[in-house]
Amino acid sequence: MVYRIKDYARFQHFKDRNPPWIKLYRDILDDPDWHDLDAGSAKVLVMLWLIASEDETKHGRLPDNRRLCFRLRISEKELAQAIIKLSHWLEHDDIDAISNRYQGDAPERASEETEAEAEAEHRSPSVIKSADDGFVAFWQTYPKKAGKGAAERLWKKLKPDLPVVLEAIERAKESDQWRKDGGQFIPFPATWLNQRRWEDEPDTATASADTPDTKPKPGDKRTRHGAEEIFTDGAGWVPA
Length: 240
Prior knowledge:
About 40% of the residues lie in helices and about 10% in strands.
């Protein structure tokens, strides 16, 4: 598996020269994901940023795992553990697009990688995220589309149960607070996640009003906040 630094243009964007330094912004001091890292992982991340600056394509690509282990002076097991902890700052790179200077050193992979790994390696990062953690489904269902980056970081940190979250959102959509003034009082997605609102007890008044005669059936459609929704068995109301 080959990786590259996510949003690498922030660290280095020179087209015609390769200075011996990278840019590091002060906003990392207020980044909760940075402060959640242990000292060893933070050290590895800084070293990865520096190694990525050597990529001749200027895309922040990292070398193959064998060479990366050598540059970091760590074992393959330690590298795998670091990659998991640093997933917020890394993304998969297409193996076919790697600079030629790394291809000669790449280990033989055909006999090692599974069919699932090969398929995952050629999928886009957004598809991988969707399959891994369910954030895309959450974002599509949540009615207020604001602060996506902050919401995604919290989602990855909290790792909530997707079906439980979607069910809680559907309950909240029927509440007076979320209906009032065209949804003006719906909290931002990051606020809702940070407060773990999916763990709130169901409103008894709303629940009692949901009688067998009025409960929606799979396939029912409605329009809310200008968007068409369809009712499904597993996830409740979702975008049509």
